[in-house]
């Protein structure tokens, strides 16, 4: 009750501030266009000291997959958890789960995807404008769960700029490898005062083709076929949003729904039915009088639920409901320093009902204060920041399962994180970057209170209420060179954990399942990321060579063993050809063998992935058509993901997809 009152009070304060500023702004002079903000820089500049990758509409159109993890897989430092083709979360620099913060428009995306590898992220690239990936510790802005990095999925469901007239897009695509049939569309309309947004999508796929015959016991499916058993899926969703604008700001709201039904691939007759509904309110005012230049606020409520079906019978039901409120205020320069201060409060209530509930009902509440500051200099830029959090994680037991009775109670944590970074401009072409951070993360509810069978990990998981804060020290250093179309980016990083919370093997057995416990150990992550572009030819056409490479080495330094699910060294290159409206790409990515695995994990072999694509932009009056064709895994290579838990728990059931052709067109008007 107290927390609900606090959240409501903060929301009212936020809206009161916006309303007052709206009234003041109506009498002020016209302002410039709203600034564009990237994830790593809340001040809206086009640069940041930390490594950031961005995928726009054209990139998402040509490389988009059915899951967020597979769409981003292959970016520098980014791999995926790959629990088959329907559930895949991004892994950044070897860190996954709750060390990677998935955001929707810079606000919390509440789901259960970090709880289990077979739980999908309820976001689809068909309804996305841009995805930004921030590598390295971003806890100062987005919380301790961002120690590995941030993935921000950005859409325009709450319009942030005025719309003149009516505009929109429609997209159709089909694929052979999974019999995909997808359709998506959006329409936006408005004037200088109001804007409306409406979008929807529908994606349907069959079982995924692979280069080897696999057994299948699912009723109605072939007993032996070159397809991943139980990998078909459907996903659909839509949203409505509206905004009102005034001279120095906007206020908008949206509601969106996402539904998905998909097979879990680890078990031939188990499927998941997922549904989430999210309500969001967002606003910003600029050119305020006094110490603050602008204030931006976001408030959201999410209702998430999914049911695991065994055949046609409903099994365990997972639900997560929560709110997120975030307020950022940009202050005027003080002694040359420019920055934002902010508050954030989150609350969620989780439940799992059924015989396979491995975590109890729980309630998590957190409050945070953060500051991010930048100092432009003659030689570059300095950044600094800090974040303080108060986190309360409470086990509520489970009325149907007595095994959770002992853990009922609450744990409180006060994580504190600081960071600093700098950019040194050696010349117009060369620059150096460096970042250092001390970060802390509060344990999650399942890390503290789990006690049950988790079939995704094929283990009986047990939490520890005695766990303390996860603490780490991070360093990265990079060099960048850019001259015209040519560029080189190289970053080295090291992350030292004094208390890394991991699921560790034990000698115990519960029934037929091995027992694994959440424990704090010392750990070390070290790695290198490199990418670049070289212009090979330029005349009436252009030919570029894009190249990339990354590697990470992760060790449990308490035992000397490697940490599990770490992607191997990867090296790749892409030839990019462009002439007028035509473009074409041919890429090859070599993945080394991953033999450095802990006891109980399965080593994976090396493989080379070859892809090709061609695209054509056609202009018809006020409509632009973007046609594309993509060929994935051209050589039909049989391969297994080293960063997927399926490689160890269900080896052979879910290799990476085989050869596939995808055709599509997007119309923009």
Automatic annotation (TrEMBL):
Keyword Ligase: no
Ranges for domain TonB-dependent receptor-like beta-barrel: 243-634
Single GO MF annotation: siderophore uptake transmembrane transporter activity
Membrane topology type: Multi-pass membrane protein
Transmembrane segment boundaries: none
PROSITE patterns reported in the protein's UniProt record: TONB_DEPENDENT_REC_3
GO-annotated biological processes: siderophore transmembrane transport
Protein name: Ligand-gated channel protein
Family membership noted in the UniProt record: Belongs to the TonB-dependent receptor family.
Gene3D superfamilies hit by this protein: TonB-dependent receptor, beta-barrel domain, TonB-dependent receptor, plug domain
UniProt lineage: Bacteria, Pseudomonadati, Pseudomonadota, Betaproteobacteria, Burkholderiales
Pfam families: Plug, TonB_dep_Rec_b-barrel
Entry keyword set: Cell outer membrane, Membrane, Receptor, Signal, TonB box, Transmembrane, Transmembrane beta strand, Transport
The keyword Isomerase is assigned to this record: no
PANTHER family given in the database record: TONB-DEPENDENT OUTER MEMBRANE RECEPTOR, TONB-DEPENDENT RECEPTOR NMB0964-RELATED
InterPro entries: Beta-barrel_TonB, Beta-barrel_TonB_sf, Plug_dom, Plug_dom_sf, TonB-dep_rcpt-like
GO cellular component, one term: cell outer membrane
Subcellular location: Cell outer membrane
SUPFAM superfamilies per UniProt: Porins
Domain TonB-dependent receptor plug as annotated: residue spans: 47-150
């Amino acid at each position: 009750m107290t927390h609900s009152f606090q959240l409501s009070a903060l929301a009212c304060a936020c809206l009161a501030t916006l309303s007052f500023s709206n009234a003041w702004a109506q009498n002020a002079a016209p302002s410039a266009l709203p600034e564009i903000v990237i994830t790593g820089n809340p001040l809206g500049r086009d640069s940041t000291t930390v490594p950031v990758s961005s995928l726009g509409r054209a990139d998402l159109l040509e490389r988009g997959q059915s899951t967020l993890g597979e769409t981003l897989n292959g970016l520098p430092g980014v791999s995926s958890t790959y629990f088959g083709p329907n559930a895949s979360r991004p892994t950044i620099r070897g860190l996954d789960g709750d060390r990677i913060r998935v955001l929707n428009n810079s606000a919390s995306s509440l789901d259960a995807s970090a709880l289990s590898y077979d739980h999908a992220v309820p976001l689809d690239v068909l309804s996305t404008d841009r995805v930004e990936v921030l590598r390295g510790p971003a806890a100062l802005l987005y919380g301790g769960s961002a120690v590995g990095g941030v993935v921000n999925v950005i859409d325009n469901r709450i319009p942030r700029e005025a719309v003149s007239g009516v505009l929109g897009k429609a997209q159709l695509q089909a694929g052979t490898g999974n019999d995909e049939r997808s359709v998506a569309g959006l329409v936006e309309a408005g004037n200088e005062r109001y804007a409306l947004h409406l979008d929807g999508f529908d994606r349907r796929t069959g079982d995924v083709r692979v280069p080897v015959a696999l057994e299948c016991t699912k009723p109605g499916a072939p007993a032996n076929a070159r397809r991943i058993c139980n990998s078909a899926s459907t996903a659909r969703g839509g949203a409505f949003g509206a905004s009102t604008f005034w001279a120095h700001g906007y206020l908008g709201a949206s509601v969106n729904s996402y539904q998905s039904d998909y097979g879990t691939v680890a078990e031939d007759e188990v499927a998941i039915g997922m549904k989430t509904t999210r309500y969001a309110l967002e606003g910003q005012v600029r050119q305020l009088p006094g110490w603050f230049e602008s204030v931006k606020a976001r408030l959201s409520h999410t209702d998430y639920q999914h049911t695991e079906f065994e055949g046609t019978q409903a099994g365990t039901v997972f639900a997560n409901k929560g709110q997120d409120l975030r307020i950022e205020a940009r202050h005027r320069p003080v002694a040359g320093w420019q920055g934002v201060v902010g508050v954030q409060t989150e609350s969620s209530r989780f439940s799992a009902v059924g015989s396979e509930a491995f975590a109890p009902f729980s309630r998590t509440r957190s409050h945070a204060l953060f500051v991010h500051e930048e100092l432009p200099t003659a030689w570059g830029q300095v950044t600094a920041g800090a974040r303080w959090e108060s986190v309360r994680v409470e086990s509520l037991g489970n009325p149907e399962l007595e095994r959770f009775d002992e853990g009922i109670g609450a744990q409180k944590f006060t994580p504190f994180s600081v960071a600093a970074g700098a950019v040194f401009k050696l010349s117009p072409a060369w620059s150096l970057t460096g970042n250092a951070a001390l970060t802390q993360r509060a344990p999650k509810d399942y890390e503290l209170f789990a006690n049950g069978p988790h079939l995704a990990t094929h283990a009986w998981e047990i939490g520890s209420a005695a766990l303390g804060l996860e603490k780490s020290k991070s360093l990265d250093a990079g060099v960048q060179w850019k001259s015209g179309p040519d560029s080189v980016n190289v970053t080295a990083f090291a992350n030292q954990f004094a208390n890394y919370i991991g699921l560790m093997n034990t000698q115990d057995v519960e029934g037929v399942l091995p027992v694994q416990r959440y424990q704090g150990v010392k750990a070390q992550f070290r790695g290198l990321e490199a990418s670049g572009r070289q212009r090979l030819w330029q005349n009436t056409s252009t030919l570029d060579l894009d190249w990339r490479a990354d590697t990470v080495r992760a060790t449990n330094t308490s035992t000397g063993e490697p940490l599990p699910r770490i992607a191997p060294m990867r090296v790749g290159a892409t030839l990019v050809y462009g002439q007028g409206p035509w473009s074409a790409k041919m890429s090859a990515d070599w993945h080394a063998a991953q033999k450095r695995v802990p006891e109980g994990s399965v080593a994976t072999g090396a493989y080379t992935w070859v892809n090709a694509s061609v695209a054509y932009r056609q202009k018809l009056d006020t409509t632009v058509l973007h046609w594309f064709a993509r060929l994935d895994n051209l050589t039909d290579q049989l391969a297994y993901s080293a960063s997927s838990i399926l490689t160890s728990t269900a080896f052979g059931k879910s290799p990476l997809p085989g050869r596939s052709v995808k055709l599509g067109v997007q119309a923009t008007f």
